[in-house]
Amino acid sequence: MKKLLAALAILFGSTFVFGNTIGPSTQCPDSVCLGASYTLNLDNYVGNQLTVDYIIDGRTFTNGTGSVITGHTDGIYSLSLNFGIPVTDVKLLSAPGGVNDWKAQTGGQNNGGCNGSGTPYGCAQVTSLANMPVVGSAESLPYIWRFLLTTDGSLLGDQSVKVDFYSYTGSFVNQISLHPVPEASSLLMLGAGLLLGGALIRRRLAA
């Protein structure tokens, strides 16, 4: 029974964090959130080492009223992610412009960027305004940050993301703070896992 419960725990812990997309299509009324899509892709979680891709699609960046910004006007200043479990160390394995353009640390963020507050968070901030990835209709590809987080090894909880957008003059533009909605594929996986787990438990009890 212990092995069964452990297997189910691993299944449930991994289901909710793969490829969940958030943004105007899910939780932003009238497409007023900055940017179009924010995705967390769990790449690997072994022991207490969590590798995750944080993807921002800056190609359809909106200005807070739902209008798509043309050209290059603002940039991504900092971003943080939260899996609901303690994070003791944060590294960037890759980032737009290169990892040297960013400083990674534990903790969350506010309007001033990474602030080191809050144990469930990992955060990354550009080392200078000139290093900010630009957003606007002229962008050709989404931006991808690959994080390596050191955790306490517990099961992952609900995830959330934040992003600070700044102008290139150093002015704060806005911040998004969102929780993803599981995709249909994730819900199907969860349903299949529940059915399988229920069948195994019934067989175990009948034996």
If you had to describe this structure to a student in words, what would you say it looks like?
The structure is a single chain. With 207 residues, this protein is α+β, with helices and mostly antiparallel strands. It has two domains: 1-16 and 182-207; 18-181, Immunoglobulin-like. It has two helices and 13 strands; from the N terminus they run H-E-E-E-E-E-E-E-E-E-E-E-E-E-H. The strands form three sheets. Strands 4, 6, 9, 10, 12 and 13 form a six-stranded antiparallel β-sheet that branches. A five-stranded antiparallel β-sheet has the order 1-2-3-11-5, with no helix packed on it. The chain starts with a helix and ends with a helix. Mean pLDDT is 73; it is low at 2-32 and 181-194.
